[in-house]
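Lab channel / #folding
Pinned by the channel admin:
"Please post every new chain as: sequence first, then the structure tokens as a reply. Keep commentary short and put observations after the output so the thread stays searchable."

First post following the new format, from NK:
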Amino acid sequence: MKLTRANLPALVALWARGVDDAARTGSTALSDELLSVRHEISQRLRVRPASAETRDLLQEFDDAFRAITTESAACLYGPDRAAAEGWSSRREWYFWRTAPDA
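Reply from TO:
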């Protein structure tokens, strides 16, 4: 699925499914695909606010993602890419998470 063609509710549903699958199966590997979905959501929210229902659902699965990952001092893709992309640990927090056993 091309993420740029999906609407925000579909992206949130993909994020929810990916986080739920990871939590249910105990998979601790952070896939680029899952993080790309969350990043696309963030980019969309900067342009256009979401409904309260969408924000609540997103918060629920963001919390679930935080529960199955560990905060990291470094960006998953490295400091050079983070700087080049203009990412910050506050705004793109999901790139500053690692699997607990990483």
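NK: The mean pLDDT is 91.
TO: also worth noting, Residues 8-25 form the longest helix (18 residues).
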